[in-house]
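The instructor's notes for this session suggest beginning with a concrete chain rather than abstract definitions. Hand out the sequence below and ask the class to guess, before any prediction is shown, which regions might be ordered.
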Amino acid sequence: MKKINVLFIFIIIGLFNASCQTKKVDEEENNIDYKGIYETLFKEERYNELYEHLQEWEEKEANNPEMYIAYFNYYIFRERFSGISIDNEMKGDKTAIQINDPETGEIVGYINESVQYKNNDIIIAVEYLDKGLNIAPNRLDMHFGKIHILNEVGYYDDAGNELFKTLEISNEINNNWLWANNEMLENGEIFLLNNINDYYGFWLNANEEKALEQVKKCTEKQIELYPNSIYAYNILAIYYSIKNQPQETLKYFLLAETINPNDCIVLLNIGRSYLNMGNSQKAEEYLLKVINIGNQQEKETAEYYLNQLK
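After discussion, reveal the predicted structure:
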């Protein structure tokens, strides 16, 4: 009996040691800094190792939004390259080289440098962001990342649809947005509405009809959900100005004025609209308002347009 007891004790000890070893391995796996490893590999552009790491990370933390962002960045950056094109207009960050006619000296084109991506990589990258957004639809950084890359590659309809959806989600979640590492954004509504102006500016300057239509679609949705957001009225008015619809242009500038009667940018835009429509009396009325309440630069601009009435 004693031998059996001793053997039984040894078995229990063996099982206990095995259990401890398993627990130790589990703890080590749980303590792996997957995001830290990703950031190191990404920074050093060790993309082959990074892909293997992402597969392991996905297996261990399938519900971690940071992992899907990491996949997105991997596909965006792994094979992107700089390209040079000759165009009729200056693009990008205005560092283009002018091409001049050797005889007349007139500008005949520009050499533009731009970052280019492989189309299939963009598609896969966006699919990973969508997976992450299915898990964490209130991660504003992921929505912004998606809109940005879709604009970069000219998928304006998709970018506009994403901004439209982001505005709807913001309204649904009462603007309680999260950012990187699931940190809560302070003043989520202000942060959202201030930053999407960059997208409107991009579309307005893209010089493409599809891009321009995203301005109308999204500003109309913004006005519906955030009727006190003065920027949306201003931008929609600019859209109608580009479309050569002066009555609609003036309509939205005047709506902006009802939100803030002392916004000198709006007042200047109203004055200019009346000036372009040939209504000198109303143009003078609004430009004089700017003279009375504007800063120095605004006053100088108003005086410039007033001089055109003389």
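Then share the key points. The longest strand covers residues 107-116. Residues 208 and 272 are 25 Å apart (CA to CA).
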